[in-house]
Amino acid sequence: PYIRSRGEGEKIVKAAFPAATIVRPAVMFGPGDAFLTSLSELASKSPILPVFGRGQTRLQPAYVEDVGKAIARVFDALQAEKVYEFAGPRTYTYQELLQTVVSHLGLRRALMPVPFAIWQTAAWFAEFLPHPFITRNQVELMTIDNVASPGCPGLRALGIEPHGIESVLATR
User: In the chain, how many domains are there?
Assistant: First the structure.
């Protein structure tokens, strides 16, 4: 539903405002985020890390401060009818991303592939909790690659050199 509704939202915006600029950020990370921070906390507490499917979904995480600067530059430039995709400098599989986090923490952890059907079932039950640890929308997002489209302008087109997760993990 999330990906579909995001696409529908873009169509509605373009229909109402044909000169609108669309910004599509990749999954973001930064201080206190719900992404790398959660993965780091889980890795530090559990000897086994569950992996979405086989861990082959591709992600290109973007640093939240880079995305914020880019959005400010888009507004300053007032360039109409553009689509920007803001992503980090490197593409990871989910498994590679987990391994990078674990390595940064100086830990050794077993990675356990968990089929998406099991994740969906767990998420369905979790959604009954006041603060679910996972939702069905999050599981759905992990079935789809989240990387910038080739040729689509991004952070570098706006003069921003993207920060990789390693540079941010090094400060933790």
Answer: 1
Whole-number pLDDT of residue 1: 66
Distance separating alpha carbons of residues 91 and 73, to the nearest angstrom: 24
Contacts of 72 (CB under 8 A, 6+ apart): none
- 90 Cβ contact partners less than 8 Å away, ≥ 6 residues apart: 60, 164, 165
Cα–Cα distance for residue pair 47/17, rounded to 1 Å: 51
Distance CA 73, CA 110 (A): 42
Task: Please give the distance of CA 148 from its chain centroid, rounded to a whole number.
Answer: 11
User: Which domain covers residue 79, as residue numbers?
Assistant: 2-169
Tell me if the pTM is above 0.85: yes
Q: What is the pLDDT of residues 51-66, one digit of tens each?
A: 999 999 999 999 999 9
* CATH of residue 36: 3.40.50.720
